[in-house]
Amino acid sequence: MRNISKLSIANLGLRRKTGQEEFNALLNLLPEAIFLIDPQTNSISFANTKAVELTGYRLPELLEFNITELIPGWQSRGAEQQPLEKPLHPGAGTPTHQQKDLILNNGEPLAIRTTSAFLPNRDNQYLVVVEREDPKVRRQTELLRMNRFWETLQRLAEVTQQTNFESAINLALEIGQLLTGAEILAVYYAGDKGPTLERWAGWGATHRLPNHLPPQDLTHLRTPFLWQRDERTVSGLHRTARTAGFSYMASAPLGQATAAIGLLVVADSKKQPEDYGLALVQNLAATITTIIQNFVQISSLQEELQEKDLAIAISDALEDAIQEGVVVLSPDLRILKLNSSSEEMLGYESEAVQGHLIEKILIGTENLVPALKEAQQGNNDYDLGNMRLYRRNGQAFLAHLRTIPVIKADELRGIIILVQDLSEQEEIREHTQQLEQRALLGEVTAVFAHEVRNPINNISTGLQLMALNLPEDDPNQESINRLQQDCDRLEELMKSVLAFSRPTDYEMETLDLEIVLRRLLERLHPRMVRVNVQYNLQVEPNCPPIEGNLRALEQVFNNLINNAVHAMSDEGGHLAIKIQSVNTANKRVMVPHERWLSPERLSYIEVSVADTGPGIPRELQERIFQPFFTTSKNGSGLGLAISKRIITAHKGNIYLTSFPGGTVFHVQIPTSDKALPDETRHS
Length: 683
What we know:
- There is one protein chain.
- The chain is α+β, with helices and mostly antiparallel strands.
- It contains 20 helices and 23 strands.
- A hairpin with a 2-residue loop joins β22 (653-659) and β23.
- It starts with a helix and ends with a helix.
């Protein structure tokens, strides 16, 4: 346009209306390509000689074109609407500039820079001056502009990572101003105070916008909207924009399409929006929505975290205050935490056992594993009752165990084991039980002396007379001998009952349990045949001998086998006896006194007596070894109590596992270091 200044536009007759031919002749003298445009149709009303040379079209051909056909993307708005306040040259409106492409006659685009100005004295036409532009400079300028644009967008994407809410909103508006170039940006937010929108944050002269918006505006502007001057208003916000003299106002809702929470407003009183201006506003609104949602979520999480911290503090205080041991497990049965009571009870520090399997720490019962399996399935609380556990130093103690599954949203989150130390209660109970046993057994002894001992003596005497009166080779001598042995066993049983109330030292000898059980099964075979009970004896090879009293152990196994046969006598069944060696290195032995877990005694013989009877109900299993407790009409309730007493005297243990359809009694007796006598080995 510097050449235009040489031939002043004032000389073109713009102050006084010059004739059209005269005016066109003046335009032909200018060195730049110039077009006159009709603002109503954007059609070319005149093109000077340089314009004809530049485009390659003849003048009549150019007059048939619309300016937007020659210059795609041409924006006429602005040039024809700028008021003539201070023209650069006399009679000319405020010029506007654009960088576009001019389509030549050969179809090739030419990079140009246009300058347009409003000519009010020329039937409201506007003049467009076209200058060639260096493509390299234009590309560099465009590349620089795009790089800045993408860098600004990148900054906008990083805004959501801000940790301070107000800083994030203000930074987003600052970057939004750089992207849109607008004078004013404002955020209206509904919040939780009501439907009215409140101006929450802003950039620029936001005082030109209202402080509050009615909820109807959010309804009318629920989709991205661009309002420009002289267009119809659709909301109160647009009426405010017209009154304030804005050239345009763009808005985009905040939140989801079906649940808007606010509104982003971008406005300017001088500039016009870019082609992609509304898309930028929409993208900026999405970023601000993300910021709001993130900080709302962070606020909610912080409140939830505070509540959880309080709950954890209360839980820790309760765990430390209660006397019960609390063991917290993960779903895969690994220790997460021990409270102070369980640390003192078991002798482990919580940090030292974290991640360990519970079976490595809570030692002493095989019933715990099935209970934990039940808890893993999400079943209800499981009361294991009283059982013996072992501390870290090997000391045994009586404890009451209970498992509690922790379930949330139908998912197992953990398992809690409550351990109650019953050592003191056990001592009191044992002392009380001893007193009760002595009182009861005094009465039982009197009954036995009167009701049993005399008949046994009479029978024994009669058998001796019969044996004397019969020849030694008489076949009945064998039957008399067996009956005499039964009398001897009854006598021994009575002695055991009498000794039940006081400690008894048995005369021990080295025994092979396989021989003891085979002889016992041979004697009981006729009875088992009568009630249709089949049996088998399974013996692990090379089982070592034990130290025990033959009569006492025969009494124990006789009682266990008879009980099993009695349980299956109605419909018959199968009796299985297994003898195996158990080493404490790979399996924990349930012995009742910790002093027998010395390094010198690592091996035990376990005899399992299993039947296919109906099983023993869980509520009766704890009482099964108590004196005078029986489920049989004709039972005395002393058999299992005496058996437990005998096994305890042998420094072993007896316990049971039962389920619907079967019961297994386990008898564990320490092995002997002595060899078997020759006559026993060859029996």
